[in-house]
Amino acid sequence: MTILPSNPNKITSLIIWCLFALFGLILLCSCSHESKLHRAEKKIGRLIEKFPELIRKDTIYKVDTTFITGYETDTIIKAGVTPDTIVIRENHMTVKYYSDGKNVYIKGKVDTFFVTKKIPYIVNSVSVKPLNRKERFVMWVADNLAWIVLIGMGLFWVAKKLIKIYNPFARFLPKP
To answer: What is the pLDDT of residue 174?
Structure first.
């Protein structure tokens, strides 16, 4: 008792189906459960380890603006009388000291102003050269080579079966 069939056509069919199964298994095993982002991060990490000159450090400045609203206050003091008016201005604040003869008034006012500050951020950038048409085609073929071979084998097998079935001269050929 033999494991393989005695007919050579059946042996060929068995070999073709074994190759189909093998390529199908290779395709299924090549799929990864990692997310695309995680795989991309790993690839970039390995690439940067090999070629650290690809990284360029750059400084970006973010402008942060703070809006400070103004306010005003008054105070009345019953004290000594001075006929002079004193005004003190510094930065965005004005203080006014004056008297009407009976009372002394102190008035303070802060103007509305903006504080703008540039904050530097150091970022790493990777320079990427775009692929031309030929390089993209080669990458596509390399990525899909297993599928191309598997589909080619399937089409060859189907064509062989169709020729065998629909060949009008098959009945005149000698049988093996």
So the answer is: 66
